[in-house]
């Protein structure tokens, strides 16, 4: 089952996906000033990526 995240990785390549996540994390850090929020989001996307690799 293909998710939009899988399609993004295939379409843009993994480095640009990481760059996009970095931009999102920086934006969230600037908005909320709470590092734990961005860290949890990073781990959430890493878990999604690892799950999509296993299938």
Architecture blueprint of SSEs:
Elements: H1 4-12, H2 14-32, H3 35-54
| Helicity, as a percent range | over 70%
Mean pLDDT reading: 71
Low-confidence stretches: none
State the distance separating the first and last CA atoms: 8 Å
Q: Structural class, from secondary structure content? A: mainly alpha
Radius of gyration: 12 Å
Individual helix count: 3
Portion in beta strands: under 5%
Query: Can you tell me the overall shape?
Result: elongated
Task: Explain what this protein looks like in three dimensions.
The chain is mainly alpha-helical. It has one domain. The protein contains 3 helices and no strands. α1 (4-12) packs across α2 (14-32) and α2 packs antiparallel against α3. The protein is elongated. 2% of the residues are buried.
